[in-house]
Q: What sequence folds into this?
């Protein structure tokens, strides 16, 4: 690795790029989207409907 990567995202990107693990990217995007949905919907009227999915 030519330059030092800092932070979790930099390390993860370097890992995927170096080992050709591109299939991890859609999984990470879905997990981050679901996590953001749960956090932002916690105080809204949608919370009971979202929590029934899980």
A:
């Amino acid at each position: 690795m030519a330059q030092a990567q800092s932070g979790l995202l930099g390390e993860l990107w370097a890992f995927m790029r170096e080992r050709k693990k591109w299939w991890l990217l859609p999984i990470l995007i879905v997990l981050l989207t679901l996590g953001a949905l749960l956090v932002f919907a916690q105080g809204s009227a949608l919370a009971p409907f979202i929590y029934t999915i899980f």
The first helix runs from residue 7 to 19.
